[in-house]
Write a structure and sequence with these properties.
The chain is an alpha+beta fold and about 800 residues long. The chain is about 15% helix and about 30% strand.
């Protein structure tokens, strides 16, 4: 549908109208928009394919042919049910995010289109997957474990069981299939003539059962596989209707989680799994030696758990290790939480897994094998691999299986950590944070505080060099008496970097929760809390909280605070001296933060509220640069055509705290300490103690964030002397480590070392030498002169 159609029907001049951009506020009156732009349910499914969706807003003739074409090329035959609803199956995809699709009834004219959200298998609702009952037994079949009331060692054996929601398979009879994933050698010019590239293979191996009743459960006793099947060591189980052919691709089905196929491996694994695994480990070791060093291409971990939690633009919680979230950290005993990097290295898609103990200190694998582990192929698919791989399966094959070979199935963990040792945090630099909260008050990246209450749309952050734009919309609030306030509040924030999707978060007047839009279309989080989109990821833990993460490491946190929004922007240090706008220039100099868009700097020491107002108005956006959505008559009339700053509105720069005002006494009890002025202003302008308290809490949250993001000095790891002891595993400024030797050994070097503020250790590295082997009683010269 073109814009002209909407013009004819609605009589409004439009510049563009299509299925992927809103027709201003015209969706309700432009009927053919809904006819050609499809809505589906469910709207998300696994990138492995097999999920079926129903087209909701179009009725077909029963039995009519339907073809769905994904990404302009992959055509899948759909079907129409007796009620005239069309259904299509998602094919295998090598990416996450919204996938465009088109629908045709003749295979020639694809004139209806929509989008479907492809999600990482780990993010899929467990109810939509095949459940491997006792997953540990599946992944470690035939290996020993302690079992029974007396904790006797035995080998994992016996039947394996899986379950699934039988109603999700439209058939009375099903097949149970094993699919394998591997990456075989190839070469690409982009990786150089001498660098091997791995081509992904995702293949049907064999059936565990054919034409079985669809009861939702299946058990079997696995038999060892033979070559060539036994060469596949990682994969998934699929349950599909028996009516489709064996191993058919792109048909309706449910997948299990990817796992190590220990139960399927050859008889040699069952006979002597330690020898088998050791050979695999050593072969992996030989391969790793030919690859570039992993730590050379990834960023360091945050030094503390507080930093890791706060740096939401670059790290997110690892669901496999989060004791507060219910995960037991099975492979990271001694830690309470791990985080994974959102950014991946540009060359190989590598990333970090950073783990922390109960004190908040980073755990290093050189102290405990359960510590932080870099990943050659991270499971976070913010970038596409070329040639395409399946991110979660690639990570399991490359990083997890090698851990099984070396650490779980054989005693060669030292080999594994030769290539996957923790990188520490000496070079980690926390992001810088700026915020806007309340009615509205701004805290710049250089910690300048001010209030600007203009009405319009403005640049919060602009960085042309880094192609980053974060814009805010403000509108007048309505106090309890329903009259317009003499102050404004944030009602929307929109952002984009480079060629990413445009993300907008807004708080409509008639809603008590945030609304998120992608490219002017509302996103629903009813099925997914995490969405990997184009160049950006969005996470919504609750309807009142949204976090946006760009591929560059820029993060934006949006929180609902009563009737206002609070926005925090986190910028990596690469943007130092590259920002302007209402959050100022990020250069550690607050005196130039009040620079207008024309380059004039207002003196922060002598400035007035009126001058700050003039500064703020200079950062209004233009119609051509706007990232906002105008999908209601109010937004269209108020913000689209008029100037982006309302010059007729002058806010109350200050309000009197009159003793006869019944609100003042309670306000003075509530608003105290840092942030008190913001709290008082918002209480008086909104005539609401709740709003004033919300502003104070938002300010306190920002203060806490700034404390968490403070730079921490690390002096780097110190080894425990051979035949000796070390009394701690923290290596941050102020740490004092004591060293001692085992009985029969004498310590040479420093028995105590302290981490200094310049990032160096006092003393020299201690060594423990056998007492009876010493031929001298004096300290060797190399220790007297400070050599290690």
């Amino acid at each position: 549908m073109e814009g002209q159609t909407c013009k004819q029907k609605c009589g409004v001049v439009l510049e563009k109208c299509s299925c992927h951009t809103t027709c201003a506020y015209l969706l309700d009156c432009c009927g053919d928009y809904k006819q050609f732009c499809l809505r589906v349910s469910p709207y998300s499914g696994s990138m492995l394919g097999g999920s079926t969706f129903t087209i909701l807003n179009l009725v077909f003739a029963p039995g009519e042919r339907v073809i769905c074409r994904f990404k302009g090329s992959k055509e899948i035959e759909g079907f129409v049910d007796p009620e005239g609803r069309a259904h299509c199956v998602l094919p295998l995809l090598h990416e996450t995010g919204f996938i465009p699709f088109e629908v045709s009834t003749d295979g020639v004219k694809f004139d209806r289109s929509g989008e479907y959200l492809s999600v990482h298998p780990s993010e899929l609702d467990p109810a939509l997957k095949v459940t491997l009952v006792n997953k540990t037994q599946w992944q470690h079949y035939s290996t020993p474990h302690r079992a029974g009331p007396h904790r006797v060692w035995s080998h994992r054996a016996g039947p394996l069981t899986m379950t699934w929601n039988s109603s999700l398979i439209r058939s009375d009879r099903v097949d149970i299939e094993l699919w394998g994933y591997r990456e075989v050698s190839g070469r690409t010019a982009s990786e150089g003539n001498n660098s091997a590239s791995l081509q992904a293979e995702w293949s049907y191996l064999y059936s565990l059962g054919r034409d079985l009743p669809n009861t939702g459960a299946f058990s079997f006793i696995p038999k060892p596989s033979v070559k060539p099947h036994s060469n596949w060591e990682a994969g998934s189980i699929r349950v599909k209707a028996s009516s489709s052919s064996e191993g058919a691709r792109d048909v309706q089905g449910l997948w299990s989680e990817a796992h190590a196929l220990a139960w399927h491996l050859e008889q040699a694994f069952r006979n002597t799994f330690t020898d088998w695994a050791e050979n695999k480990c050593l072969a992996w070791d030989d391969l790793e030696k030919t690859l570039p060093k992993l730590l050379d291409e990834i960023a360091d971990c945050p030094c503390t758990l507080a930093q890791a939690r706060a740096d939401t633009g670059r790290f997110h919680t690892d669901s496999g290790c989060d004791t507060q979230g219910g995960s037991m950290c099975t492979f990271h005993p001694g830690t309470i939480r791990c985080v994974r990097s959102i950014q991946t290295s540009p060359r190989r898609g590598s990333g970090q897994q950073c783990c922390y103990d109960g004190t908040g200190a980073q755990v290093l694998t050189r102290d405990l094998t359960s510590g932080s582990t870099p990943e050659l192929k991270t499971g976070v698919p913010l970038r596409m691999d070329i040639p395409p791989r399946i991110p979660g399966l690639s990570h399991r094959l490359t990083d997890v299986m090698s851990f099984y070979y070396c650490c779980l199935w054989s005693d060669n963990c030292h080999v594994y950590f030769r290539h996957r040792s923790s990188s520490g945090c000496k070079t980690y630099r926390p992001p810088r944070a700026g915020a806007v909260l309340g009615d509205p008050h701004f805290i710049t990246f250089d910690d300048l505080h001010y209030t600007f209450s203009g009405e319009g749309e403005y640049y919060l952050v602009s960085s042309p060099d880094k192609e980053l734009s974060v814009q805010v919309r403000t509108q007048r609030g309505k106090p309890e008496n329903d009259t317009l306030a003499q102050a404004t509040r944030l009602s929307s924030v929109a952002m984009k970097q480079k060629a990413s999707d445009v993300i907008e978060v807004r708080l409509p007047d008639d809603r008590d929760q945030l609304q998120v839009l992608r490219n002017q279309k509302v996103l629903s989080f009813s099925e997914q809390r995490w969405m990997d989109l184009h160049g950006v990821s969005v996470f919504s833990a609750s309807p009142q909280n949204v976090t946006i993460m760009f591929a560059s490491g820029v993060g934006v946190e949006v929180r609902r605070r009563e009737s206002a929004m609070a926005v925090t922007v986190l910028l990596p240090t690469e943007l130092i001296n590259n920002t302007k706008g209402l959050l100022g220039q990020m250069n550690s100099d607050p005196t130039d933060d009040l620079m207008t868009s024309q380059g004039e700097v207002i003196n922060v020491a002598t400035t007035t509220a009126e001058e700050i107002f003039t500064f703020g108005t200079s950062w209004n956006i233009s119609k051509e640069t706007s990232l906002f959505t105008y999908d209601s008559k109010y937004l269209f009339d108020t913000y689209y055509y008029p100037p982006k700053h309302d010059t007729t509105f002058i806010p109350a720069f200050s309000l009197p705290e009159t003793p006869d005002d019944p609100l003042v006494a309670d306000m003075l009890k509530m608003c105290y300490g840092n942030g008190a002025q913001f709290c008082k202003y918002d209480t008086l302008t909104s005539r609401s103690l709740a709003q004033g308290n919300a502003t104070l809490r938002a300010y306190q949250s920002h203060e806490a964030l700034m404390q968490d993001l403070e730079q921490v000095v690390s002096c780097g790891w110190l080894p425990t002397p051979r035949n000796g002891k070390k009394n701690g595993t923290s290596y941050l400024e102020g740490t004092v480590l004591d060293f001692s030797c085992n009985e029969g050994f004498k310590l040479y070097g420093s028995s105590q070392r302290t981490c200094l503020e310049d990032g160096t250790w006092t003393g020299v590295q201690p060594h423990c030498l056998k007492v009876h082997s010493l031929s001298i009683t004096k300290t060797p010269a190399r220790y007297r002169h400070g050599h290690t």
